[in-house]
Amino acid sequence: MKKITNICCIGAGYVGGPTMAVIASNCPEIKVTVVDVNTQRIADWNGADLENLPIYEPGLKEIVSAVRGKNLFFSTDIEEGIKQAQMIFISVNTPTKTYGKGKGMAADLKYIELCARQIASVADEEKIIVEKSTIPVRTAQTIKTILENTGNKIKFQILSNPEFLAEGTAINDLQNADRMLIGGDHSTEEGRKAIDSLAAIYERWLPAERIIKTNLWSSELSKLTANAFLAQRVSSINAMSAICEKTGADVDEVARAIGADSRIGSKFIKSSVGFGGSCFQKDILNLVYISASLGLNEVADYWEQVLLINSYQRRRFAENIVTSLFNTVAGKKIAFLGWAFKKDTNDTRETAAMYVADLLLEETADICVYDPKVSQSKMYSNLEHLGTRSNEENEAHLKAVSDPYEACRDSHAIAILTEWDEFRSYDWQRIFDNMKKPAFIFDGRNITDCKKLTDIGFKVYQIGRGCNIASV
Ligand code: UDX
Ligand code: ADP
């Protein structure tokens, strides 16, 4: 087994950054270099102000401050990073394709391919390549083919080591991972050695029994399967939330009741305005695409339904705001509390907030957003990505402010899109006093106390509970 003393990670994003910080802090004798083409991102990782790291993640700045400059480095010199390392992690993004075959469904592997070509052209000795990005089944084969055909005839071992960290809890998820999956080529001595070299790194802080070794394809497919199962649970409870609102059942009570069944379990059954994030939608689209490509149309339809329920849930929430506000939000100020796809992250990829905002902007509402970690420019780029209207129109009708009370002042309604803890302890009487009447709250995360707000005078809607306004 090869003893690893130098690691390079290509991609300094939500996966690469936290993962390498945790490896560096647990393995002080390994030099870890994270490289990226994005010079601003690298400058921010190296910045003196730890409050302004490119990624917000609880516990991250403490680790970075302890190991940066000791055995954790951030650099734009990708070639040098590759050359020096015995093990290279690929943590670049694999967004859904926006062009050509598989547009809107398949994963775009151009960044992965670029990495493979760069590794092949630079490497002058044997290396272990670890796929960390979420990728469709059999991508390892693509990487292997590129490495074998474009390089200097050097041997590479390819491993799949999918990331199961969830944003907002990344450090804890990495430090105390339920399992660490390593897929590789068991059929050869070199393959087994490579798997063991990576396992030895994780065994520095994880019990050996949590490290699961599989073949490459099982490992790649397990990542898609895990995300599809998790997303399916959220869509299942969200589908029930619509029934609850029509029948008087309370979705949180239903979730508690079914969660107590140990066969079902209590996690990932919190009803919401819809799931977001970089993985769920992308991975399920990918699964649907793979299934259809394999001629498995029923399987494709089955998984696609998880996404259809998710967009239904977002649309239902937005339409309920319009209907409740006497069928028009034109020119009305609507306050958004939260924009991130969940609490404790500044990530906004696929956030429900942008879809709800988009629908309300179509109804010519004026939106004022407060999110503790998301910048206004990120909100505009999310809306630009949807491409529904011009940037000028988005900028004229949506603004972000840094004070929640200001966001809510003179608004007709508040929509809660993210479950940030601080929202729970606001002075709701003060907020109510400064709003237009009747004052509405649409709680897309069920974090408010309906009775307390109703007593103050609010008209309250919660997902799957209806609360004190009739829902559509
Ligand atoms: C997910 C997987 O959990 C992780 O293992 C994988 O590596 C990447 O994708 P992440 O996208 O960071 O992680 O967040 P996650 O906690 O899974 O939440 C995804 C979305 O589902 C969020 O928008 C969240 O608000 C929503 N959600 C989650 C619910 O609406 N209800 C729930 O009960 C749980
Ligand atoms: P993830 O959530 O998967 O970590 P991010 O978008 O946060 O996704 O991070 C991916 C990072 O990979 C980005 O910072 C991007 O600049 C970087 N990247 C993409 N392609 C390359 C490449 N060929 N070489 C180096 N870095 C790359």
Primary descriptors:
472 residues; alpha/beta; 6-stranded parallel sheet; 14 strands; 13% strand; binds adenosine-5'-diphosphate
Number of DSSP-assigned strands: 14
Strand content: 5-15%
> Helical residue percent?
40-55%
- Lateral strand order in the biggest sheet: 3-2-1-4-5-6
In whole angstroms, how far apart are the ends? Answer: 62 Å
Bound molecules: uridine-5'-diphosphate-xylopyranose, adenosine-5'-diphosphate
Extract low-pLDDT stretches.
none
Give the overall silhouette.
globular
Total helical elements: 18
* Major sheet: 6 strands, parallel
User: Helix- and strand-based class?
Assistant: alpha/beta
- Write down the Rg: 24 Å
Provide mean pLDDT, rounded.
Answer: 94
